[in-house]
Specification:
40% of the residues lie in helices and 11% in strands. The protein has helices at 3-26, 50-55, 79-83, 99-110, 116-130, 145-151, 155-167, 189-196, 224-233, and strands spanning 90-92, 95-96, 137-140, 175-177, 200-202, 212-216, 219-220, 239-243, 246-247. Bound molecules: zinc ion (ZN) (2 copies).
Length: 253
């Protein structure tokens, strides 16, 4: 290698370093693993590191065809969905709420890591496109004004907006949360649903009979919230689907 080439290579390496440093300053979150913050090489294709990949709780085992809850046996539909007719057609949740996924969702909502919405949205979008589900409009589970002010953003709304960008589908604000319900223990799903009455309402909007609506939330635990919101609109449209980053696996009763 002649001297010229050597200095040229040095220059190229130097410029790559400058570019990396520039990226780190300008887009600090975009080159780090979304789960642990380690630097990674190919963020666009895989926004997490190899170590986290091993720990990721993908919701890809046997799961309920309706609510997406992981099922330990071979059943197609979980006990809860067999007992309670859902107001939505199907739930899409790429992860199980556990481990590094749980930590990063908590960091997203409670530590204001808003940039994570973009990556989470990509995982959800993949679930929807793999299932070939057609969505006409995306909406989200609202927060009360008080809660939104406290958190400074609605985590489900931001997720919906990022998902709208990925899927090229419009996002509309359809629901209002009227009050924050107290955390209570309910003995049955029916009681939980009863307690929801009046908590959410639907905005004045022209619903179309042929519309397929997707309701976005961050986590689905008992399905009570998404199911209640779905119930406010499911008679007005063709289909209501719901989605979240992760599905909580409930203890079997
Ligand atoms: Zn990682
Ligand atoms: Zn189910």
């Amino acid at each position: 290698m002649d001297k010229n080439n050597k200095s040229k290579n040095k220059f190229v390496a130097f410029m790559a370093k400058v570019r990396d440093m520039f990226c780190k300053v300008m887009f600090p979150e975009d080159i780090k693993c979304i789960f642990c913050g380690t630097d990674i090489a190919d963020f666009e294709n895989k926004p997490y590191c190899d170590d986290c990949e091993k720990e990721l709780s993908f919701n890809n085992g046997n799961k309920c065809l309706i609510c997406s809850e992981p099922i330990d046996n071979e059943a197609k539909v979980c006990d809860r969905c067999q007992k309670n007719k859902r107001n939505f057609k199907k739930a899409f949740c790429p992860f199980v709420y556990d481990g590094v996924v749980r930590n990063s969702i908590l960091a997203y909502k409670d530590s204001n890591r808003r940039y994570l919405a973009k990556s989470f949205a990509k995982f959800i979008a993949k679930e929807l496109t793999d299932a070939k589900v057609a969505i006409d409009v995306i909406t989200f589970v609202p927060l009360t004004d008080k809660k939104k002010k406290q958190r400074s953003f609605n985590q489900a709304e931001l997720l919906a907006k990022e998902l709208g960008k990925v899927l090229a589908v419009p996002v509309e604000d359809m629901f209002v949360k009227n009050k924050d319900s107290k955390t209570q223990k309910f003995s049955s799903y029916k009681e939980r649903q009863q307690n929801m009455i009046g908590t959410y309402s639907v905005k004045n909007r022209k619903f179309k009979k042929k519309e397929n609506v997707l309701i976005v939330d961050d986590i689905i635990t008992t399905c009570a919230t998404v199911d209640y919101c779905a119930g406010l609109i499911n008679k007005k449209v063709a289909n209501v689907y719901v989605c979240a980053i992760a599905r909580n696996k409930l203890k079997s009763k």
